[in-house]
Amino acid sequence: MTEPRVLDGAATAAEIRAELKQQVAALGFTPGLAVVLIGEDPASAIYVRSKVKACEELGIRSIELRPDASLTTEDLLTIVADLNSRDDVDGILVQLPLPKQVDTKRVLEAVDPDKDVDGFHPVNVGKLQIGQDTLTPCTPTGVLEILKRSGIPTAGAEAVVVGRSDIVGKPVAAMLLQANATLTVCHGRTRNLAEHTRRADILVVAIGKAGFITADMVKPGAVLVDVGINRLTDAADVERFFPNDAKRHETFAKRGSVVIGDIDPAAFAVSSAYTPVPGGVGALTIAMLMHNTVKAAKLRRGLK
Ligand SMILES: NC(=O)C1=CN([C@@H]2O[C@H](COP(=O)(O)OP(=O)(O)OC[C@H]3O[C@@H](n4cnc5c(N)ncnc54)[C@H](OP(=O)(O)O)[C@@H]3O)[C@@H](O)[C@H]2O)C=CC1
Ligand SMILES: Nc1nc(=O)c2c([nH]1)NC[C@@H]1CN(c3ccc(C(=O)N[C@@H](CCC(=O)O)C(=O)O)cc3)C=[N+]21
Ligand SMILES: [Mg+2]
């Protein structure tokens, strides 16, 4: 069998950022992205760091708010209302998960849909469903973007999505359908999961379980998109998933953990192309957030 192609998310993201940098320079004003980060979620902290860096590179103003984790829903609604009314704020992102006492649904619905760079507001969710151009969730948008830029056709393809979260599974399914794939969505109640995944020409996995999709669940020659971000902290797991990966073992020795997606690396070998973790879909998420911020900035000013 021929070697699978590695779909390089980091390189694709760099390409997108370079394009956006030119667009921002041509705008004649500085777009602003506001991020509200509450609490200590490590995934969120990584995300915020990468965002600040990308904003600097592109010439976008990054506004960071870190209110106290004991705030109430009303406190956060006041913060969101203020950001909605600020003319120097084009994009608003409220980092999830929110503290337990905060009503997430009310907060997401309070964000001005035209500033909703996460694409989580019900109006934007609805527009995506009916195929209207709108702000769409960053990770799913990144998945479609890397397929497109890698020359992988979706029209008529058997696409199988594993996972149905509002953040990844559902919107990526909506986008694949919009891109004319024949769509199957699997989840925790799916019977005979492998029978579905084995039919996929394009398999997108977003479940949050380390190496869950194994080689026997994949059709030879399929394209694998691994959205999962998981951490292995047990040496035996590192040995099982990465028996011949010297770099992973080195990282584990140094840091006590390694990152792995939802797909067993052994399954990549039977694919025709796959997105690695890290350096795949995750890298694109940030680039698409920048894309959405520029899009929102133009939209608000009636620019195309
Ligand atoms: N790369 C990136 O930029 C991003 C990566 N992620 C990562 O993607 C992964 C998924 O995130 P998210 O969508 O938020 O996760 P959620 O936990 O919200 O959803 C997980 C989904 O997977 C389904 N599922 C769980 N176990 C199985 C199983 N054994 N068989 C079939 N389906 C299963 C669940 O089914 P059910 O609905 O029935 O419970 C659910 O729909 C995580 O690892 C997360 O860290 C997330 C966001 C961005
Ligand atoms: N409102 C909201 N929107 C989100 O989109 C959102 C969120 N809340 N809460 C947290 C999760 C997590 N998330 C990540 C995005 C990119 C990387 C990323 O850049 N990953 C790199 C590695 C980064 C590194 O390890 O340095 C990669 O996979 O290659 C990681 C995680 C977005 N999320
Ligand atoms: Mg997102």
Automatic annotation (TrEMBL):
SUPFAM superfamilies: Aminoacid dehydrogenase-like, N-terminal domain, NAD(P)-binding Rossmann-fold domains
PANTHER family: C-1-TETRAHYDROFOLATE SYNTHASE, CYTOPLASMIC, C-1-TETRAHYDROFOLATE SYNTHASE, CYTOPLASMIC-RELATED
This protein's name: Bifunctional protein FolD
Record key words, sorted: Amino-acid biosynthesis, Histidine biosynthesis, Hydrolase, Methionine biosynthesis, Multifunctional enzyme, NADP, One-carbon metabolism, Oxidoreductase, Purine biosynthesis
Catalysis performed (reactions): (6R)-5,10-methenyltetrahydrofolate + H2O = (6R)-10-formyltetrahydrofolate + H(+); (6R)-5,10-methylene-5,6,7,8-tetrahydrofolate + NADP(+) = (6R)-5,10-methenyltetrahydrofolate + NADPH
Function of the protein: Catalyzes the oxidation of 5,10-methylenetetrahydrofolate to 5,10-methenyltetrahydrofolate and then the hydrolysis of 5,10-methenyltetrahydrofolate to 10-formyltetrahydrofolate.
Entry binding sites for NADP(+): 163-165, 229
Annotated gene: folD
Family from the record: Belongs to the tetrahydrofolate dehydrogenase/cyclohydrolase family.
Entry-linked HAMAP family: THF_DHG_CYH
A biological process term (GO) from this entry: methionine biosynthetic process
Pathway in which this enzyme or protein is active: One-carbon metabolism; tetrahydrofolate interconversion
Signal peptide: none
Domain Tetrahydrofolate dehydrogenase/cyclohydrolase catalytic: 7-118
Record-annotated Tetrahydrofolate dehydrogenase/cyclohydrolase NAD(P)-binding domain positions: 137-299
Oligomer and partners: Homodimer.
One cellular component (GO) term of this entry: cytosol
